[in-house]
Amino acid sequence: MTVYAYTESPLGDMLLVGSEDAGRPALVSLSLPGQKGGAVVREGWRHAPGAFDGITEQLRAYFDSTLTRFDVEYADAGTDFQRRVWRALEDIPYGTTVSYGEIAALVGSSGAGVRAVGTAIGRNPLLVVRPCHRVIGADGALRGYAAGLDRKRLLLGLEGTGGGPGGPVASGAGVGVPSS
Questions:
Q1: pLDDT per residue over 25-84, tens digit each?
Q2: What distances in angstroms separate CA 144 from CA 66, 86, 147, 150, 152, one per listed residue?
Q3: Does the annotation count 139 as an active-site position?
Q4: Which of 98, 132, 135, 158 is catalytic?
Q5: Which end of the chain is less congested by CB atoms within 10 angstroms, N or C?
């Protein structure tokens, strides 16, 4: 059964969607109003605000700058390639950024594969929790974010990477892809 709830955030009301197949819901989607490709509540879904208490507490701590890494049970969706890209996103340390090209190299898809990496990042169903906002252009410019560049800038600013208007964006190293 699919369950959902909303939680407030500095980005707007976030929609949490989970699959309750194994009792406790595994997070399937975390999206924002107006987000490109974001989840939409469907008929038959059950509103279950308490089902996501642990995740909402982690989100509050993140937005209060007291949590730097999420520990969330989520459904393993997507293609093999998308999952590799998404695992690489999970390894980007809080407060750092990497380029799309760096992610492409980590997943073995450099060169023309940068575009495919960008597409996989754009289909990340777990905004904030899986930090796709930490991926920027090779020139340091903010590039695409399904929830909008203003929200990406806000998240980077929260993490101290200079995501504010006109601010520099720091590039980080040490990102690795866990072995499958």
A1: 899 999 998 898 899 999 999 999 899 999 999 999 999 999 999 999 888 889 999 999
A2: 27, 16, 9, 10, 9
A3: no
A4: 132
A5: C
